[in-house]
């Protein structure tokens, strides 16, 4: 049985060991492709895989736990071990990861507590989660014959708080549940974050996160170690080999040769975890959002990240540049040829059915009634869309309507006719509408575009979604609302026998028979905004603003034989045919 220790060096079975790790998030990769991605990591000559664990997927509702399919962490770890890979596990409570709410379940927003603090209510929820999660992790520790080298306490806490009692509480929750693997923290490499977020006085290993200038950043970490008389190995726990992307912004690029040299610079002094090695996909509604002043900027569905493996898991120029650098500098490390998946093309898949959201609303959601609008969280909904409905009397030929304090994107309809689309900074502005009837139906469709995953807004009311104050006509708040929750986990209850109306949010169903299946990319260049379901799995959001104009479909979601693709589109734009492509589509954008 292997042993792992942290002394002046990392020691594996008593011998010096350089950790050469790559990040692969099991929850961002179809399970049928886990072997492919992990093999390619081993083929590069690396010895370890790192993964976060997303609390919000494993416990989407309080005490409702899931570890099946794409959430089968144990199977992922076992595949890695079979390939000869060790593992580093980062099991929340907070993960950042450009992930919805930084991995926190949205139901925490209903709790009277402050997350990422030593408050009892919050820690009790963490304890309940760890009661279930850590039983999945403990058997895979090195000491139990598994492959886990180290486990992280919290994540980049020094960029958020400095409450050492909280960090100690998280550590104790782990130890009380039989975590025996060495523990560590990771933070920015400068003194302020290391001081605030580390547990150096508790003898917990400190690691740093950066994407360049290894000499300077390791020197800063070493100075902090010396200040506390610690003789520890240096490790970059997140070496950012690319970057994430947001809607309306160009894809961020990094030169492969420059990256390979930067990786070599890290390895000269210490150990490394490439973040990301395979980025994968923010399936469903799991993209996070960046906090920028009064607005939040949501990230795109693709988490390609510009990583050594592209979104589907195939090697890129960065992979081969790092491979060459490893071969030249560490010739003793075994390397293999990487696996490469094929892609397929299928053009002109015809539209089979279409129906307006308003027509099928009662088949996919049951109304909840209240005097004033409620938020998603109050209604027990985590993500997706929420439709608010009421009627108003005609007081004037034209009426002034306002959505007060809504998040994130609002479409207001009068008698099922779109009158205004507003985003965060526009919500609250006047919407002047003609009223043609004595009584008029008002519908407000709100999209939750993703909660922030990092920074000062994590615990604030700004992350509650929907209409948070109310809707006004003239100078008064409108009452008597119906709420239709639209989490859109699937679209199986959509009734296509009902009516379709142009220029309304609608469902469009396409059917295609496939003799063979491979990875592909759905062309969405001529659609507006919405989400896509492939055989009832929500594969994520699309938006015509770019930079991406396609969505990745892993072959594991497709069937030999009949397949159903459903597009929920909110802007009234659709096509009579769709196509599956071999490569992703992008908009060419300029910086700024």
TrEMBL record:
A GO BP entry: carbohydrate metabolic process
Domain Glycoside hydrolase 35 catalytic: 9-327
Every Beta-galactosidase galactose-binding domain range: 505-563
Keyword DNA damage: no
GO molecular function: beta-galactosidase activity
Pfam families associated with the record: BetaGal_ABD_1 (PF21317), BetaGal_gal-bd (PF21467), Glyco_hydro_35 (PF01301)
Catalytic residues (UniProt): 156, 238
Listed name of the protein: Beta-galactosidase
